[in-house]
């Protein structure tokens, strides 16, 4: 299709015409003003013009067979602005292109410019951090400079970039590609490397510099990440030309070498997952026959056949565990903390297999991307593949039994969603009241995030006795009391929170940290959740002054309204980026600015990082160095390490040892969750001696309350990190 104005198509404006301040880059009003003054026909291309990227971009959009034809591919172009990129793609045959930008001015102008000549292309006024597209909506996402703009996000550079990358990964179909044109600044580069580790194949290119004079002097790179159905770790393959901006390319190659070293370490112990095709070829024996004790991790799904790909575990029962009431049972599980434990330990899988009395059990795990899909539709989507795994002894389709097993795995007798709210940063947040089979009719209120791997953050028992009135006068209650219940803040139920208290008190005893001078122990908790941990600490440990760092104001609202969280002079919340907050503490020279105890209580929102907890950013060496600088001389750093990959754990250990020489750990929740304690002080801790001293101190001050017994027990589980 011929262009309306060829002269303008070759025009590349110099960068100084764009909004230049950080505030302008993130301000919708500034961009509206800019596009209003320039108009859709007076435009500027960022980084590269079409001739520079045409061949490379088309090659990566033309997937290997069985690739979709260009006219059937669904492509998203975020932060499209007035760029001609989408128009060029359309003219090359890619018809289903969705362009988004938060400037309504430019969207209206570009729609008007293209509606007649490119009628199948769509334009949406939408924030790229909150696109609201469903999971698996696009075959490709092509980003030209949009990611780099988020370095100036109002949520802080890391959080803005991380939120956007999470959106990208969710919106892509299996086999889809994220193609990003970027200057690869260190922050952007490091995030791209770490966020696209598990389950992504990556190529990296330099873009030739053939633009008009006056453009940016920095080298442009193309980052291409292909979404794999397998959770594998692959090396990043570079195609780099150092002839232009040699120093910039050299720095990227140095970072790439470090990243590939990390990836090689991860790949050494990555679990082996199989496709249905491999199983049918006999790589794990004859799949039509039940083989005693066989366990196979596999993926189900096929491009163009199924709507999704599914993570599964297949188990064959030993004959001696019979007789069997079913030959083949299919169990669907939501990806919860309980199901993570279940998937990671074969012993738990065997117990469930026995409970169903099935000769073969297929467990299909559904993550948050399936939440918008009805159960019947998931059954239809998986059915063709499930039947291929049916053993020959189950000759009829009716011999296959399908059930959902989340409540069984978690031991839930009764559950009810009390509240749900959508957040730009965290997606859907749920408040749920549950009653467990073994809880003696006690109801627990828990919070979970749809996007995080472990889902449930924490929980606390409810009490209805706190709202009795005295002498006819209404009793003042928390804002969550309208339902006639109150969250109990003097009890901890999660192993992690109990371990945090045990470690905090143990290492505080060792450091002889006291408040004789009238001071308080300065404690920072990263991640508010429902506020159960900080509320317990305020109630039980009066020597603490607590600051909580939470990025999402929606989380604070939920904690206040549904969990009775309140602030006072000893407990304050900061709505800000955690890494920025810790860095400011580290750089401060003011008296008393350092932190005595720093706790991370944040789960990972990105399964491809290899972490269930914490976020990968919080165990990078650079952040650990910042943590150490933020701590006082006797400071303590605590976090939860929760991963299914031994290679990930080894890398974390290595990073920790590079920064801290005094490291300890303990296991909780059936040895599934690890708690790390890093002491800044170089002198080692005599654990047995310190446990005895802690016992004496607690007996003197707390008279053996039940929670004290728990602390004494858990403190003895803390050992030096091997």
Estimated share of beta-strand residues: 15-25%
Q: Roughly how many Å apart are the termini?
A: 66 Å
**Poorly predicted spans:** 1-24, 466-482, 514-518
Strand order of the largest sheet: 3-2-1-4-5-7-6-8
Question: Which shape, going by the Cα principal axes?
Answer: globular
> Rg, please?
28 Å
Largest sheet: 8 strands, mixed
Secondary structure tally, helices: 23
**Residue-averaged pLDDT:** 80
Helix % is 25-40%
Total strand count, please?
27
What structural category characterises the helix and strand content? Answer: alpha/beta
Architecture blueprint of SSEs:
Blueprint: H1 6-9, H2 22-26, H3 28-38, H4 50-61, E1 74-77, H5 85-91, E2 96-101, H6 104-114, E3 122-125, E4 138-144, H7 146-149, H8 157-171, E5 172-182, H9 186-195, E6 200-206, E7 221-227, E8 237-239, H10 246-267, E9 274-275, H11 276-280, E10 295-300, E11 310-316, E12 326-334, H12 337-344, H13 346-356, E13 358-366, H14 375-388, E14 400-404, H15 406-410, E15 412-423, E16 427-436, E17 443-449, E18 456-463, E19 486-487, H16 495-510, E20 521-526, H17 532-540, E21 544-550, H18 553-563, E22 571-575, H19 578-587, E23 595-600, H20 621-630, E24 631-641, H21 646-659, E25 662-668, E26 673-679, H22 687-702, H23 706-715, E27 719-720
Parallel strand pairs: 1-2, 1-4, 2-3, 4-5, 6-8, 9-10, 12-13, 12-14, 20-21, 20-23, 21-22, 23-24
Antiparallel strand pairs: 5-7, 6-7, 10-11, 11-13, 15-16, 16-17, 17-18, 18-19, 24-26, 25-26, 25-27
Helix pairs in contact: 8-9, 9-10, 10-21, 12-13, 16-22, 16-23, 19-20, 20-21
């Amino acid at each position: 299709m011929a262009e309306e104005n060829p002269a303008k198509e070759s025009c590349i404006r110099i960068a100084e015409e764009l909004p230049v301040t950080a505030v302008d880059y993130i301000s919708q009003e500034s961009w509206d003003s800019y596009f209003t003054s320039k108009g859709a026909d007076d435009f500027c291309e960022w980084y590269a013009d079409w001739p520079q990227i045409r061949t490379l971009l088309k090659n990566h959009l033309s997937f290997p067979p069985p690739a979709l034809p260009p006219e059937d591919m669904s492509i998203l172009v975020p932060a499209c602005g007035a760029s001609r990129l989408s128009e060029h793609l359309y003219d090359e045959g890619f018809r289903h292109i969705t362009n988004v930008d938060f400037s309504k001015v430019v969207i209206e102008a570009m729609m008007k410019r293209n509606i007649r000549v490119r009628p199948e292309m769509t334009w949406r006024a939408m924030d790229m951090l909150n696109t609201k597209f469903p999971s698996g909506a696009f075959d490709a996402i092509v980003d030209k400079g949009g990611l780099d703009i988020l370095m100036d996000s109002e949520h802080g550079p890391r959080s803005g970039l991380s939120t956007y990358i999470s959106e990208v990964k969710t919106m892509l179909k299996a086999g889809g590609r994220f193609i990003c044109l970027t200057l690869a600044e260190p922050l952007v580069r490091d995030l791209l490397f770490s966020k696209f580790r598990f389950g992504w194949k990556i190529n990296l290119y330099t873009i030739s510099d053939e633009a008009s004079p006056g453009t940016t002097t920095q080298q442009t790179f193309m980052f291409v990440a292909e979404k794999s159905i397998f959770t594998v770790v692959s090396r990043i393959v570079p195609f780099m030309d150092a002839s232009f901006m040699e120093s910039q390319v050299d720095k990227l190659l140095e970072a790439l070498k470090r990243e590939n070293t990390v990836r090689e370490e991860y790949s050494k112990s990555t679990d082996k997952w199989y496709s249905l095709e491999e199983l049918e070829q006999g790589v794990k024996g004859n799949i039509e026959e039940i083989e005693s004790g066989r366990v196979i991790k596999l993926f189900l799904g096929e491009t163009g056949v199924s709507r999704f790909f599914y993570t599964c575990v297949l188990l064959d029962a030993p004959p001696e565990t019979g007789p069997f009431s079913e030959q083949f049972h299919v169990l669907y599980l939501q990806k919860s903390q309980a199901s993570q434990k279940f998937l990671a330990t074969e012993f738990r899988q065997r117990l469930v297999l026995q409970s169903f009395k099935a000769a073969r059990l297929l467990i299909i795990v559904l993550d948050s991307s399936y939440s918008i899909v009805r159960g019947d539709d998931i059954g239809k989507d998986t059915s063709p593949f499930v039947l291929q795994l049916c053993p020959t002894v189950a000759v009829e389709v009716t011999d296959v039994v399908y059930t959902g097993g989340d409540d069984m795995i978690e031991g839930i007798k009764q559950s009810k969603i009390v509240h749900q709210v959508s957040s730009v940063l965290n997606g859907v947040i749920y408040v749920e009241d549950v009653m467990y089979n073994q809880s003696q009719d006690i109801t627990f209120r828990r919070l979970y995030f749809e996007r995080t791997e472990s889902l449930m953050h924490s929980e606390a028992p409810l009490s209805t006795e706190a709202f009795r009135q005295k002498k006819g006068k209404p009793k003042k209650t928390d804002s969550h009391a309208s339902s006639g219940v109150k969250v109990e803040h003097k009890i901890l139920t999660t192993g992690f929170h109990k371990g945090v208290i045990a470690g905090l008190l143990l290492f505080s005893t060792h450091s002889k940290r006291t408040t004789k001078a009238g001071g308080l122990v300065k404690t920072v908790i990263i991640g508010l959740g429902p506020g159960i941990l900080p509320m317990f600490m305020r109630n039980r440990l009066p020597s603490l002054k607590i600051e909580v760092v939470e990025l999402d104001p929606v989380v604070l609202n939920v904690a206040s309204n549904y969990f009775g969280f309140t602030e006072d002079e000893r407990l304050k919340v900061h709505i800000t980026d955690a890494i920025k907050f810790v860095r400011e503490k580290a750089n401060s020279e003011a008296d008393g600015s350092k932190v005595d105890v720093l706790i991370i209580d944040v789960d990972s929102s990105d399964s491809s990082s290899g972490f269930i907890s914490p976020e990968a950013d919080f165990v990078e060496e650079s952040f650990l160095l910042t943590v150490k600088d933020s701590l006082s001389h006797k400071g303590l750093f605590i976090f939860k390490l929760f991963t299914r990959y031994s290679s990930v754990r080894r890398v974390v250990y290595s990073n920790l040892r590079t920064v801290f020489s005094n490291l300890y750990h303990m296991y909780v929740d059936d040895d599934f969750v690890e708690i790390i304690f890093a002491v800044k002080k170089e002198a080692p801790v005599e654990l047995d001696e310190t446990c005895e001293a802690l016992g004496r101190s607690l007996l003197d001050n707390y008279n053996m309350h039940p929670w004290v017994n728990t602390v004494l027990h858990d403190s003895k589980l803390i050992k030096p990190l091997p």
